[in-house]
Design a protein that fits this description.
heterotrimer, A alpha+beta (806), B alpha+beta (264), C alpha+beta (159), A: 806 residues, alpha+beta, Aldehyde Oxidoreductase, domain 4, seven-stranded mixed sheet, 28 strands, 28% helix, globular, B: 264 residues, Uridine Diphospho-n-acetylenolpyruvylglucosamine Reductase, domain 3, four-stranded antiparallel sheet, 11 helices, 25% strand
Chain lengths: 806, 264, 159
């Protein structure tokens, strides 16, 4: 262990080891319990009738024929929910606009009322004995739609004459928000020798976790208790939002269980209509109600990601030193505000635009816009990929303007390694990092020195070869509650842990975070094993059930280890402190003389000791016990509120080849050098990076949610939305550098989103580099073969040999 | 899915009776297109007549200068057949590269051509090789069989039983896959036969078609360079979010050359 | 409307009355309780539902249970008993799974690959996995796991 390891880690066991995952056996043998694997006695099945139109008046709904169909138990519409006092889906983050006014926050009914605003907006729910019967009946519901023109692209929706979604949102604008010192930026631009400019689109994505969403509502008519089983990254948040705002149920009568969750990437953070519908309806029909999304339904009902249109300018002096950054972004919110949507293009985007650089003045203006599309919210990275993509593509443009090597211009502007804590001009204060080191690691592994020779060789094979660099900074470990509250969060963002030591010394850890693939059952167990000197096998991690865990804010924003793990460490400290009192009693020593390491309480400087298991046993069998001063039992709970965000950083380098005949991009090599602070399980961390890279590469080359002008989603299944396959991706070269987080007990920063943040810009800078012999050409994501072929076609190929020979 | 009656006759004769008797029957071969279509409720047949129990439809044999493949032979079986591989390697490769392995274990030649999806692979091989399609009623040339998008000359109660492919001097298939669906955006089957070069294209148009200009050039000299500068008219080609008609027209030339280069 | 079907699932003979529109995957999950076989898409692309039918990998979401009459079905639950199958063990050792949802189909697909190609290269593996989508791993560790699983399956194990 490094010298600066926290005391609780000094026994070493577990932390830093690639412990194979405890959860794998059940997944590998088909014994996992995903929500759709559960069936409740007497359950019924729900099918949601959804709008086929992007924008329409709901003139009438006639359910007469459907109610008579075989197997139908009940049918409910928006009017039924309104009559029952069911509330709308709440938004969890309030943005205050640049005039000091709150954002426009229109109602989001659980089932549409008055109007439908996107294809897939739920109109009615049919509950039947089987899913097929529910769907059969849904086809018999007569809905009279008064079809209206649709507003689809955010940049069009703000134009005069565009269709209006809500009366209360003129020009479809949710808010206009800004951050930074505009006058300082204007002054810097006035004296700048060089300016780089860029317009770009950050393409809309569909998260597509492989497990579609599902929910089962169950009502106990005897006790009046409700249970919701749901595919959620944060069951307590769902309980809070649905209980308090939608169904008006107190926490003690509502249990939310998220069993094994098959991926989420953000899309399973939010409180969705279907959760409220099945929970509410289960009391109405007095039977459990189950709903499972199919993939086509997921495309029109799961919150989507990204969708920004931006203009950016970077002012430089004659040496390529950044003087000021100016950014103007239009962000598409979709038809309604999803749970955290307003925070994504503001708090999690604009504040990241300093990146890894010392740019002294930054101003960012953001306009959030309603459109007749599926709501947009956080997707892996959530604002930070958008910031990194914009900034790192702009820096490459700047390198061309300043006639500097892309690596060199970055070095010239990196925050010096001795400048921490570093206050950016956009609110954040970075605690630690070393961007020079990760960049050098990545360039060396990527063999940048040999690149030009490889480019020349590729040219002889009819290929355009390019290399692209992206560095990034993230703000993870969301977040100090007071800061989040000041920024508009309507919840705290601490985390909880309960370490329950059993009489024989085994341990159950209850954590408020919730794995949806990240391996918490192993990583969190490693923390407990290290802290208490027990083996990983003696630790069971429990999560995902509000009836078992004290509280929790769940898993997103790479917060589980930085915030949840810190809560675990706090609870461990409490266990050890209590154990020390018990040990002091048994060893007849002063408490101050008892030390704890490697699972043993020992009187300093003596061989008198008690094992952790002995202390645990004594705590539960307190025959010889300091009963007057110490309670029996060994079960400690901690709440940890982070002191700052954490700031993972890194450098990614992509090397690609474009086939000039077809436009197909091949990723020849991809290198990632990341700084996540202390690493608990290197195997899991590498896996997280790989997965993030695949999603980032997917965004750059393959994926895009495309709507037509009427608001129909053209990429509404895997037939048209291109999910990266094994053959699309290379083996990845990943490495880590460690600078510790300075403000949490583990020194950890978080690793879940990094790949998705760095990869898009690295790939697209490589594409732009490959195309550079043809000129300075705008290419937006995804850089599909068809798009690149058209670009290559429209630029004279005669330029290529001369340029390639340079 | 909507409800339907399911029948699995054991003989071709029973299948013929069943389909003729059904009010709005559909034949079920491998089901790789039909089952997803039913799941999406895009079709509502009264009856499904499953051909999977009819042993006589599965044979693969090579003799007298032809390869004959039963309609219910799966793509995997065709791809794994040593006799097919030896006789027409290009056909073997085509079968081995339809969809993915699990699809190839179920999908069949008869199902593929009867559906005539414009992006299906097999129609290119049938047309380029001048194959003969045998049905319960007659035999047809590939040129007569493929009529248009999802449309064939088959009558409602007519069942494809086998396809015979004359063995060419050489043949190759090259395709450009749709990045999402992995169907052919463009697939080009090139054959050098006793009667001259034949080039058939799938994916690009509403239905499979030949390219006479390419064939004439290859008849002069069977080499990729013979196709230099030749293009096809994009006017009649498909255009969608994945590939414009221009791009498809270009890809036809590129993949025709690649196919020729593979065998010359 | 319901009709009887019978087949062998994981070595056990089973018979049931099913509606003709029942998919094999629905039968396995809803009637036999074999929920290790998952449904991840509705266009036959993701492979989460992949099982072996008469020894070959098949997407059970694209097959009517009636079509499986008389067949031998092997699902992830039947791949091993007690000890992990070498391919399962390789996925654990090489961290070839994260959320675990695509995993059963991925493992069943890999086992079929190795039956047909005992020593697959990286290219062979990526090519074969065309019909299995994973959203978590970026495939890197899946490829490593299948390579290792293939080595471990070499020799006596027939899969």
């Amino acid at each position: 262990m490094p010298d600066d390891a926290p005391a609780a880690l000094s026994n070493g066991g577990g932390i830093g080891a690639s412990v194979r995952r405890k959860e794998d056996f059940r997944f590998l043998t088909g014994q996992g319990h995903f929500t759709d694997d559960l069936n409740r006695p007497g359950q019924t099945h729900a099918y949601l009738l959804r709008s086929p139109h992007a924008h329409a008046r709901l003139d009438a709904i006639d359910t007469t024929r459907a109610l008579a169909a075989p197997g139908v138990v009940a049918i409910f519409t928006g009017a039924d929910l309104a009559a029952a006092g069911v509330g709308g889906l709440p938004c969890g983050w309030l943005i205050t606009d640049k005039h000091g006014k709150p954002m426009v926050e229109p109602p989001h009914p659980v089932l549409a009322q008055g109007k439908v605003r996107h294809v897939g907006d739920p109109v009615a729910v049919v509950i039947a004995e089987s899913r097929d019967e529910a769907q059969d009946a849904a086809e018999l519901i007569d809905v009279s739609y008064g079809v209206l023109p649709a507003a689809v692209e955010a940049t069009d929706a703000i134009k005069p004459g565009a269709a209006q979604l809500f009366d209360e949102a003129p020009a479809n604008t949710c808010y206009e928000w800004e951050i930074g010192d505009k006058s300082a930026v204007d002054a810097a631009f006035a004296k700048a020798k060089l300016v780089a400019k860029l317009d770009l689109i950050n393409n809309r994505l569909v998260a597509n976790p492989m497990e579609p969403r599902a929910a089962i509502g169950e009502y106990d008519t005897g006790s009046g208790d409700y249970t919701l089983y749901t595919t959620s990254q944060n069951p307590h948040v769902i309980r809070l939002l649905m209980g308090a705002f939608v169904l008006h149920l107190p926490e003690h009568k509502l249990r939310v269980v998220a069993p094994d969750v098959g991926g989420g990437f953000g899309s399973k953070i939010y409180h969705y209509a279907e959760e409220a519908i099945v929970t509410w309806a289960s009391a109405k029909v007095k039977r459990p109600v189950k709903w499972t999304s199919d993939r086509s339904e997921a495309f029109i009902s799961d919150a989507q990601g990204r969708d920004h249109a931006s203009h950016a300018e970077l002012a430089m002096d004659e040496n390529g030193k950044f003087l000021a950054l100016r950014v103007d972004t239009v962000a598409n919110m979709g038809a309604y505000l999803s749970t955290f949507a307003p925070a994504i293009p503001t708090i999690l985007y604009a504040t990241l635009l300093a990146g890894t650089y010392t740019t002294p003045a930054i101003h960012v203006a953001v306009r959030a816009v309603f459109t007749n599309t599926v709501p947009v919210d956080a997707y892996r990275g959530a604002g930070r990929p958008e910031a990194t993509y914009l900034l790192e593509r702009l820096v490459d443009v700047a390198a061309r303007v300043a006639k500097l090597d892309p690596a060199e211009i970055r070095r010239r502007n990196f925050i010096p390694t001795d400048a921490y804590p570093y206050q950016t001009p956009v609110a954040l204060q970075y605690d630690s990092g070393d961007y020079f080191k990760t960049l050098e690691m990545a360039l060396k592994t990527a063999d940048r020195d040999g690149f030009e020779a490889r480019r020349a060789d590729a040219a002889t094979r009819g290929k355009l070869r390019g290399m692209g660099i992206a560095t990034y900074i993230e703000a993870c470990g969301i977040a100090p509650s007071a800061v989040a509250g000041a920024l508009g969060a309507r919840a705290g963002l601490y985390e909880t842990a309960e370490v329950r030591v059993h009489p024989t010394g085994s341990v159950t850890l209850f954590t408020g975070t919730h794995s949806h693939g990240q391996g918490h059952e192993t990583t969190m167990a490693q923390l407990v094993a290290s802290g208490l000197g027990v083996s990983v096998d003696q630790v069971e991690v429990v999560h995902g059930d509000t009836s078992k865990i004290p509280f929790g804010m769940g898993t997103y924003g790479s917060r589980s280890l930085a915030v949840g793990g810190s809560a675990v460490m706090k609870a461990i400290d409490k266990v050890v402190a209590k154990g020390r009192k018990i040990a002091a009693h048994l060893l007849e020593a002063a408490e101050a003389d008892v030390e704890f390491s490697d699972g043993t309480f020992r009187v300093s400087g003596t061989d008198r000791s008690k094992s952790f298991a002995e202390i645990a046993f004594t705590a539960y069998v307190p025959h010889n016990y300091p009963i007057d001063t110490v309670e029996p039992g060994l079960d400690e709970t901690a709440f940890y509120d982070p002191k700052n965000f954490t700031y993972p950083s890194g450098a990614h380098v992509a090397e690609i080849e474009i086939d000039r005949e077809t436009g197909v991009v091949e990723i020849v090599k991809f290198t990632a050098a990341d700084d996540f602070g202390r690493i608990i399980n290197p195997m899991i961390v590498e896996g997280q990076v790989h997965g993030g890279l695949a999603q980032g590469i997917g965004q750059a080359l393959y994926e895009s949610a495309i709507y037509d002008k009427d608001g129909q989603l053209l990429t509404g299944s895997f037939m048209d939305y291109c999910m990266p396959r094994a053959a699309n991706l290379p083996m990845f070269d990943v490495a880590t550098n460690v600078t510790l987080c300075t403000h949490n007990p583990l020194g950890v920063k978080g690793c879940g989103e990094a790949g998705a943040i760095g990869a898009p810009a690295a790939i697209m800078n490589a594409v732009a580099d490959a195309l550079s012999p043809l000129g300075d050409i705008r290419v937006d994501m995804p850089a599909t073969a068809a798009k690149l072929w058209h670009i290559i076609q429209s630029h004279p190929a005669t330029h290529i040999p001369a340029q390639a020979a340079e | 899915m909507y409800e339907f009656n399911y029948q699995a006759p054991a003989s071709l004769a029973d299948a013929t009776k069943a389909i003729a008797a059904a009010e709005d029957g559909k034949l079920l071969a491998g089901g790789m297109t039909l089952v997803p279509t039913l799941k999406q409720r895009l079709a509502r047949p009264s009856d499904l007549i499953d051909l999977g129990r009819i042993a006589e439809l599965k044979a693969i044999k090579v003799d007298g200068g032809t390869v004959t493949i039963g309609a219910m032979a799966t793509h995997a079986e065709v791809g794994a057949s040593a006799a097919v591989q030896q006789a027409i390697p290009g056909l073997s490769w085509l079968a081995s590269n339809i969809g993915d392995p699990a699809v190839r274990h179920r999908g069949t030649l008869g199902g593929s051509i009867s559906n005539n999806d414009p992006a299906a692979d097999y129609p290119a091989a049938l047309l380029a090789l001048g194959a003969t399609i045998y049905t319960t009623k007659r035999q047809l040339s590939a040129a007569d069989f493929f009529v248009g998008m999802f449309e064939t000359a088959l009558e409602l109660d007519e069942i494809v039983t086998a396809v015979s492919f004359p063995i060419p001097e050489k043949a190759a298939y090259q395709k450009f896959r749709n990045p999402a669906s992995r169907y052919a955006v463009v697939g080009v089957f090139v054959a050098k036969t006793g009667g001259g070069a034949r080039v058939a294209v799938t994916g690009a148009g509403p239905s499979v078609f030949r390219v006479p200009a390419f064939e004439a050039a290859l008849d002069r000299s069977f080499a990729a360079a013979s196709l230099d500068g030749l293009t096809i008219d994009a006017g009649e080609l498909n255009s969608d979010i994945h590939a414009s008609a221009d791009y498809r027209a270009h890809l036809v030339a590129v993949f025709a050359k690649r196919a020729v280069a593979e065998i010359s | 409307m319901s009709a009887p079907v019978s087949m062998t699932v994981n070595g056990r003979k089973v018979t049931a009355n099913v509606e003709p529109r029942t998919l094999l995957v629905q039968y396995l999950r809803d009637q036999l309780g074999l929920t290790g076989t998952h449904v991840g898409c509705d266009t036959s692309q993701c492979g989460a539902c992949l099982v072996h039918v008469d020894g070959k990998s098949v997407k059970s979401c694209t097959m009517l249970v009636a079509q499986a009459e008389g067949a031998e079905i092997l699902t992830i639950e039947g791949l091993s008993s007690g000890e992990l199958h070498p391919m399962q063990a390789a996925f654990k050792e090489h961290h070839g799974l994260q959320c675990g949802f695509c995993t059963p189909g991925m493992v069943m697909s890999a086992v079929d690959l190795v039956k047909q190609n005992p020593a697959p290269t990286e290219h062979d593996i990526r090519d074969w996995l065309e019909g299995n989508i994973c959203r978590c791993t970026g495939y890197h560790n899946i490829v490593k796991a299948v390579e290792a699983g293939a080595k471990a399956m070499g020799g006596s194990h027939a899969g």
